[in-house]
Each structure stands twice: as C-alpha cells, then as structure tokens.
Amino acid sequence: MRSSLARFIEIRRALPLLAAVLLIAALLVPVWEITLTAPQYPGDPMVIELYVYPHLSGDFVEIQGLNKYAGFYFPDPVYVDPNYDVHERAIDTPEWVLGPVVYILLALTGVFVALAPTVRKLKTGLTAQFAGTATVFLGMFALIQYRLYQAGHTLDPDAPLRGIEGFTPPLLGSYEVANISGFAWFGPGGYMTIAAIGLLAIAYLARDTDATVLDLPALLRTVPETIRARVTHHRQRGNSHEDRTNDTEDREDHA
Amino acid sequence: MTHRPQQRPETEAANDEQSEAAPDEESDWLLPGFKRRDFMKAGAAAGALGGLAGCTDLLGGNDTDGTAAADANQSVPPGEHDEYYAFLSGGQSGGIRVYGLPSMRELARIPVFQPDSGTGYGHDDESREMLEEAGGYTWGDTHHPRISQTDGDYDGRFAYVNDKANGRMARIDLTYFETDAIVDIPNQQGTHGSCAQLPDTDLIFGVGEFRVPMPNDGRDLDDPDAYESVLAAIDPDSMNVEWEVRVDGNMDNGDGSKEGRYFFTTGYNSEGAVTEQGMTRSERDNVKAFDIPRIEEAVENGEYEVINEVPVVDGRKDSPLNGGNEPIVTYIPTPKSPHGVSVTPDNKYAIASGKLDPTASIIDIDMIDEVDDPTDAIIGRPQLGLGPLHTAYDGRGHAYTTLFIDSQIVKWDIEEAVEAEPESESPVIEKLDVHYNPGHLIAAESYTEDPAGDWLISLNKLSKDRFLPVGPQHPENDQLIYIGDDEAGMELVKDSPAHAEPHDASICHRSKLDPAATYDSDDLDLEYTDEGDETMERVEDDRVEIKMYSTRNHYGFQEMTVKEGDTVELQVTNIESTSDLLHSVAIPEHDVHMRVAPQETRKVTFTADDPGVYWIYCAHFCSALHLEMRSRLIVQPED
User: Fold this and answer.
1) What is the ipTM of this complex?
2) Which residues of chain A make contact with B624, given a CB cutoff of 8 A?
C-alpha cells in the first residue's frame, strides 16, 4: 500500500489530473480554426480562430466584411459583448458563454475523481468521468453543428448578393460557399481537448492496475524496439531504393 | 557555354519555387518527388528548347546564387513573375515606366513630375504641394532613372531621376513606388544626366545641360560667351543641393567611377555657340572628369561663390582651382561632341561615345591624374559605326554601344580596343540591327559592379513600320535583346511599343527590391482615422475639417454638409488591410481624385464654390458593391 501522496503517480490518478490541466489551458488558446481561401486572396488564406468563450481572433474582420455580402453573420452570444460587431439578425447562441463553465467543471470533476479515497470509488469515478466527458463533448459537437446549420440557413434576405443557397459548414472538414473554400479543424485548444479525452480514456483503461507513471519509460522503451524491427524489415526489402530518411537514421541512433 | 563565366540557370522562368529549390540539393535528394516537380515546372516554363538543359543546370550545383536565368526564351507564362524590374524613363510624359523583364510587360507607371489621376498623385495635398514647391509645372522630361546602390550593388531603396525640362531631380521611394521628394536645382536649366556617387549613393549628381547666364536673372542676355552650366551635387536624404561646379561648355550625360572619386560628364558645344552650325564646328569636345574629393575640399575651404543660396565652385578651365597639379575638373578632349559616358564594371575605364564621330574613347581612369596632357588618358578608340551614343556592359569584358545613325547595336571587346590601333574596327565582335535609331541601351544591372549579362534593352527613338499604325505620332520602340550567349551572338527577341519618350533605363534583379503590399501607417505623416473615430468640425467661419475612413463599401460619412464658399479639408484613411483593395475619393466637378490604398491616409483641400449635391464616389473598383460606395457632398447656398 502506497502512501497517500505516492498514489498520485499511479497512471489512473495522474492522467485525470493532467487532463484537468489541459482543459484549463485550452481556455487560453483557440479551440477551433476555420481557414478560408478565395480566388482574390491568392496564396494568402484567411484564418478565423474561435475560443471556448465568445471571442474571435485571426482575420475575422476581413471575413465579417465578406460575410456581409451573403448575409451570413457571426453568432450573437446574447449575454456578453464579444470582440466583434454583432449584427442584429445574427442567430442567438447564448450557450457560448457556458463554454468555460463546462471546461472548468470537467476539470474539477477530474480532480475530484483523482482524489477518490478508495480504489473502488476511483474506478467508478474514472468510468463516470470518461463517459461523462465524452458525452458532454459529443453533445457540444452536436449543438455546434446544429448552430452551424442554423447560421447557414438563415442568410439575411436583405443582404446585397443573390444566388447563394443556404449551406451547412461542417464542424470539422471542408466546405464551399460562393467563391470561398472553407476548412474547419481543431485549434490548439481543440487538440488539448482531444488529448484530455484521450488521457481520460487511458486512465479508464488503466483503472485496474496500480502501475505508476514511473513505469511509463519501460512501457515506452518497447516502442523504439517495435519501430526498429519494422525499419530493419523495411530496409531489407527496399535496400536498392535508397529511400531512407533522416528520421529513420535518428531512430537508429537512439535505439 | 564556355563564354559564360557567371554560370546561371538556363531557364528564365526561375520562379520562387525553383530558385529556392535549386541551391538546396540535399532537400531534392531527400524528397525525390520535389526534384521531379521542378523538372516538370522548368520544362513547361522554358519550353521544349531550354527545358531539359535548364534542369541539368539547376541540379548541377553551379548556380548557387539562384539568380537570373536565361536563354533567349522571353516568355513568362500567365501567373509567373518576371526575373527583373526595368525602370524606364518616360521622357516628356514626366514619369517612370516599370517593366518586368523578360516579358516587357508594363507593371506600373510612376508619375514623377506630372499629376496623375490613376494614382491620385498631385491630387492630394501632400503631393500637390510637393509639385507646387518644385515649380508648379505640369510636366517634366525624365531621362535617367538610376537606382540607389550600396557596396556597388543595387539596394532597391530609391530611384532618382532628372527633369531635363525644368532643371529638377526627383527621388522615388521603391518601397511604395512613389515619388517622395523633388528638388528644383538652382542655377541649372535642363538637368540632363543624373547619377549617384558610388558605391554607396552618397551624392546624387544632376548634370546641367543648357548654358545660361549665371545667375540667369536678366544679365548677359546677348553674351553667349558668358553663359555657363553647372554640375549639382545633391544630398540623397535631404535632397538639398550641397554644392555646384560651374564649367565651360555644355554638359550632357554623366556617370560616376565605382569607388566614388570621379564623376564624368560628356559635353558638346565647347564652342559656346547658340546655333546648330556653331555647336558642331570643333573636332573635339570635352569629357569632364570632376574630382569629387578635391571639390569637397574646396567647398570646405570656402573657395566658392554663393549663387542663389548654393555654394558654386569654379571649375572653368581658367579657374585657379584647375591651375595646379590637382585640378578639380580635368577637361579631356574627346571626338566629337561625345554623348554618353559610362564606367566599366571593373572601374578601369570611362567610355565616351563620339556621337558625331564613329569612335568611342576609352579613358583610363587611373591615368587621368598622372598624364600631363589629358588626351593621353584616352588609351583606346575603336571605330564602332555611325552615331555611337551610349554603352552598356555584360560583365564579361564586352561593351554594347548604340549606333544612332546606323540603327544598330555594336558589341565589342573592351581590352581588344585598348590594344588595337585607334580607329581600328578589329575590336568589333558583331552588329545587330534595331528598329530604329537607338538612343540609350541598358543591360541588366549594367550600372553595378556585377552586371548580369543576360538581357539588354535598346530604347529606340523611332518605330516607323514596326507596329499597327496609330496616326502621325508613332510609338517608340523598346527592343529586348538576349546577350547571354556569346557564341550564338545577340538575339533580338521582342519589340515593345512605348509612349513618348524613352531615354535611359536601369534593370534590377527582383531579389533586390522589397515593395510593400500595403502602407505602414507609421510611414505617413497624417493621422490614421479608424472606424468610429471620424470627425467633422467647423474650425473657422468658412473652413470645415473632415476626417473619415473608407472601407468596403462606404465612407465614414454618408453625407457631408458644408456651406457655399467653405474651404473643405477632407482627410480619408483606407482602413482595409487586404492587399490591392484600393479606394479613392472622386469629387465630381471639383477636380479631385484622391487615391487611398490599404492603410493609407491622404488629405485633400478644396473649395465648395457652387451650391448643390455632389456624389463623392470610389473610382477604384473595390468590390461587388463598388458602385454603391458613395457619399453626398451637400453644399448649402449662402444665405
């Protein structure tokens, strides 16, 4: 039996703590990025970055200027003034202000689980935390996708430009509207969120073992072994092609 | 190939991707796909002829400088960029033409001495006041655009150009491609040549051509012998005239020695005549070699006379400053009415073209101060052909001289001309017909210490039958010639019609320029007015100050109401940050078209003379709602 402090180096307790840190850190950077290209912006794609709370960065002013023609507006967070101009016909997304609340709550419950006094409670907590977090984010993704549909289908009828059909920008992936090609993907905060969910998944999978993070190097050491085995195999096959890269050389050195 | 000491990639379409990829063989090696793509691109760009060879060169490792490139293929496919900028004089049109080489596409016109509604130059207060302070003329006659140099190479910061018509010199900011200073040179009527003191552009020289009474205030009207011309030295930063040197005879073109000691001018009319017959009587005229350090010493010692607030040093033949062993101006008798003078890239020779004599005179720069008789400094005098005017260099020991009367360009070997007997034709390598009557010619980076040696433009005075007829005023003809292959010889590759009237030019590799895509508001004097900061204020009884922004698709004020007779100061900031999104402020019936480029702030002052409604509109097509981008100027009648 470990001392109470030492227990926190167990994988199943350390990872939820780390996940909590990642979720809090994700508040500081954009979670979501949309890259837009258009013929008249050659070689100079515009990027709009969205935060967990109602805030934009990147080329949002320029994009707002273009959206105006189609009557497509950035959403109205209703309860706060964001750092961009809100059009009176923008769709309402009052839930956006709750973004940080969700992140902070998930971080706090993660800490709470990590502190569970007994292994039994810890295992229950890990299961609930993983399932709960995954559910919350899936729900959030669904809601955002709905809002995207809503925004793309409530184009201002008084907007100057005709000929633009309603459209649904995807939460993740590419889309086309008018002369603009968009690509939506995770921002750094999005990757941190995914990593946090991943850590919670690992903690959940490791809920029955008391292996510690100190055991991780040993676990990781098996990775280069595996890679070397593969590379050796690969080189024997492809020797005449000379298709080696710096990467494989480095790996050999370290191995 | 053996005649190309400066090995360069074969394909002229060395776009960014290639020039970055070429020196980096290792990345080619490690990323096999990359090499293949370059192959394809170069092949496609350079055409079947040069494509394969081009690639061999690109990968051969000889071309680590990644610069120019060329075979005689002058095509630049749509979407590709040219290799060089060419700055060509606009002559009596008053500005500079900017071409891309080798396509010879006109990229821009920079108005210098004339208002231009296309750029709004001369319409906003600042540029209008600059033109007014520089004499208020509506035109100029630009001849010699020269680019600033550092360490004997183009630094791409500024260009300088003369106004022969009104004795002025202008500076063009090459970050924004706009004229930013003009000096009206005192005591100089007809500033012909212009050139920088090399290697670091410490002074700009304006060569005075027309001899006039000194000062030209009504004295000596009927005494042509008392007329004089001056060389003016201008500080490139302040654009103030620092000093002048008065000389005998007319002056014409000029060029400086590469280390900055000498400035050479050609000249005609040492006869001091006022008629054509009188000006061409003498067999020899003078190349003048100005010794800059000695002149500056004389200025420092107070050996000058102040005329029109400028220290004028006496460089006439009988001046005491020319009396001893250390003359400030050496007069080198040269046949006959020599026109162009240019210094070889290695700084050994100044070569003056005879104009009315079929020879060029090769002056050994180091001998000027050593010989007793200045004529002895002329160490070579090849016979080139009729009407030799100007000479350019390829950096491989060849000179290219225009033959105005013969309508040819002659390529000749400089060292062979030094060895050969005077008036020998043996140094001539070949002659190429041009169309017609070439004045200047310029080779790529010919004015630097390291010419590129691939392209040459012959700026011809007449086009005659070369283009579709457009009435009695035929276009002039700038012809592009490939000079990169000494074995194949010069090759004429393109005619390019030009608006009147081309003279000199400078060709600069694109890597040496760094133009801005939008304005930096810190570079402008006027205050930036952002959205929400617009103000309209009656500052005096009859004066209204308006500060507003412009953006897609409106102005800061949708209407502006003033009273009949008001003076209106209208300052506008284009708050766009996207490149190429220009707006302008066109005011009907008020003679105003003020351009505002992204992040630019300009001001125009006008009088609202007549009551009525005037639709201020954007004349630069900015967007889908361009026509809707308007504002009403409402001028109320006086009560």
Assistant:
1) 0.71
2) 69, 160-161
